[in-house]
């Protein structure tokens, strides 16, 4: 049984694509903007280029982010945007976490 | 352990970071300087060309000096609209300033109604209220508190012109306040370039984990 399946069995259906700390940071930053480039995300999340690239690939594979590569003055420039699906998933995750922690006894 | 910011605070921090570079301050300072120098030298066209010349120049400088340091992000909803609003306000400042000069020349005619004559006699305070108020509104629109201080300083300087009997002219006040704001902007820009060095850009897709 995987950890995700164990969580499901406990009634916790956490989106692991978002739940991982680095990806949570990335999605939170993308949630508050419309789109951002790599340098912006590196500066705001503190992730290295490689780490960021690796996590963004995972988020892109789940369909949560859209990565657009363009050329500005012959230099490659990559913009990242949360898709509608990613935005909805982040909203759901946010509500789940809020409900989970608000439910804890003091 | 410091508390993590909520999403609202995170959004505000990210937004304010895009103003840390001081180029907006330099643009506002140059606008006021152009008005002041234009009045002093009677080259009134200076104030007319400053917005169409300085805004594209600032955008170009931002693309070359800011984006390689902190990157680029586009904002959503309210923030996106507020950027358009502040550009309209800055353009409005230039137009209102030029309009006030046209107004005073019209109001100096013998046929002008009393209220026009009253405005003409308190022209500098009125222009201080319009410009200071516009900077305050711009500060509120973009959630950028420094603009409140600039609005207050500008109004104070123009009020002083009205109160001090002679020797201190509108042009001097605009040059002093514009120069001060541009200098603050330049200092912020230097601090920004030191705080955020250019990102050495590795090959895209190179993973280290």
How large is the share of residues in beta strands of chain A?
15-25%
Structural domain count of chain A: 1
The level of helicity of chain B is over 70%
Rg over alpha carbons of chain A = 16 Å
Most strands sheet of chain B: none
Q: What can be said about the biggest beta sheet of chain A? A: 3 strands, antiparallel
> What is the CATH C level class of chain A, in words?
Mainly Alpha
How much β-strand is present in the residues of chain B? under 5%
Report the span from N to C terminus of chain B: 26 Å
Greatest interface and its participating residue counts: A-B, 27 and 26 residues
Average the pLDDT over all residues of chain B and give the rounded result: 80
- Principal-axes geometry of chain B comes out as elongated
* Radius of gyration from the alpha-carbon trace of chain B, in angstroms: 20 Å
Secondary-structure class of chain A: alpha+beta
Approximate shape of chain A: elongated
Quaternary status: heterodimer
* Name of the CATH homologous superfamily of chain A: Winged helix-like DNA-binding domain superfamily/Winged helix DNA-binding domain
Query: What would you say the CATH architecture of chain A is?
Result: Orthogonal Bundle
Tally the helices of chain A: what do you get? 6
